[in-house]
Design a protein that fits this description.
- This protein is α/β, with parallel strands linked by helices.
- Helix content is about 55%, strand content about 10%.
- It has one domain: TIM Barrel, CATH 3.20.20.70.
- It has an eight-stranded parallel β-sheet.
- Helix 8 runs parallel beside helix 9.
- It is globular and about 60 Å long.
């Protein structure tokens, strides 16, 4: 018995904390499509990766000696093309390279893991048809991509329609239980439609991204603006609480989509999710920090956030009540909800920064 115990201990000691996280059934993604970061993440057990306009611009700027010639070639090949055209050409090329790195995971899992996500134009968040049309185009970028769509009123229609057409989606810009559940319901409707139309849905495993850290960011902005004082550390738990409550509902209702924790600000947004049948898309610097920590890797997903923390957040922040209550927000309120509006503005700004990068190369 002592030998077995020692052998098991040595096995665990030989693995990184990210690899140990996977031992409990919780998936780990790299929250970037930067190739060197993704290679490192894959060595530690990553099964997916993400991108958005901000990430693509960052990748292009951080390795300009690689990507500027690529941008210039796209500009030459599109004599009458706009900066938007070239920006999406660049996005597709960055994503294709990352998707190729993930292909072994995709093949081993039968297509259920190993996907690189990419996001529709955030400016189209009010236009179902535009989002669906672009989702179809982006889904052809590589065999193992998923398309990110915002969880706002029009986005729900796009999520359902894209899923019905066989597109694997990753709903994003989501900060509340009501948004997560609405996205899960839209995916279920889409999967049923896809099945009825004869599409093979076995390999379709959509993820619903709850941006846990960005909800906390919003509550901190509210606290500063309204000069509220709460116990130190309380505001680090808001997103975790929303994620755990969403997880309970997803499990109870048997949704086929998988929750994906995003936007990291502290270790609880990783350590408190361990043991859940979920995925965690963690920025490179954060998962490296977690790997170097002494935090115990053990299942915590089923452990509720302390009642006194929930009470303090509910008592002081109406927006937390709206985020935590499964009926706290109606779909027509999703876009105007504080963290949604803030994030959409940032994503649109990031897209404009990507276009500015292209414009500089065009007008040299």
């Amino acid at each position: 018995m002592a030998y077995l115990a020692n052998a098991q201990k040595e096995k665990f000691m030989s693995k990184s904390l990210m690899q140990l996280t996977a031992e409990f059934g919780t998936g780990f993604w790299n929250d970037s499509c930067e190739p060197n970061e993704l290679r490192d993440a894959l060595a530690h057990g990553a099964i997916g990766a993400t991108s958005n306009p901000v990430i693509v611009a960052t990748v292009a700027k951080s390795a300009s000696e690689i990507w500027n010639p690529v941008i210039d070639q796209f500009i030459r090949s599109r004599a009458t093309g706009t900066e938007d055209d070239v920006g999406w050409d660049l996005t597709a090329e960055v994503v294709r390279k990352a998707a190729a790195l993930l292909m072994p995971v995709y093949e081993r899992s039968g297509g259920r893991d190993g996907r690189q996500s990419l996001q529709v134009n955030p400016k189209n968040f009010r236009n179902v048809d535009a989002m669906v049309a672009q989702a179809e185009e982006l889904f052809r970028t590589a065999p193992n991509v998923a398309v990110k769509l915002p969880v706002v009123a029009a986005g729900l229609g796009a999520i359902e329609e894209a899923t019905a057409r066989g597109i694997v989606v990753t709903p994003t810009v989501c900060f509340s239980v009501s948004q997560a559940v609405a996205a899960g319901e839209a995916i279920e409707r889409g999967l049923e439609r896809a099945k009825k139309s004869g599409k093979q849905i076995q390999s379709m495993r959509p993820n619903v991204a709850v941006m846990v850290g960005r909800l906390d960011d919003h509550l901190k902005r509210v606290m500063e603006a309204q000069k509220i004082s709460v116990d130190p550390g309380c505001l680090e738990w808001g997103g975790v609480a929303v994620f755990k409550r969403s997880y309970q509902i997803f499990q109870q209702r048997g949704f086929r989509s998988v929750l994906l924790a995003a936007a990291y600000r502290n270790h609880m947004q990783w350590s408190e999710m361990i043991g859940g049948k979920v995925n965690l898309t963690i920025p490179y610097s954060w998962w490296k920090r977690f790997n170097n920590s002494k935090i115990e890797v053990r299942p915590r997903m089923e452990e509720p956030v302390r009642a006194d923390i929930i009470a303090m957040l509910e008592d002081n922040f109406p927006d937390f009540r709206r985020a935590y209550d499964p009926q706290g927000l109606a779909p027509d309120e999703f876009a105007s909800f504080g963290p949604t509006a803030h994030t959409l503005k940032q994503f649109i700004g990031g897209y404009n920064e990507l276009l500015a990068l292209i414009r500089e190369r065009m007008l040299r």
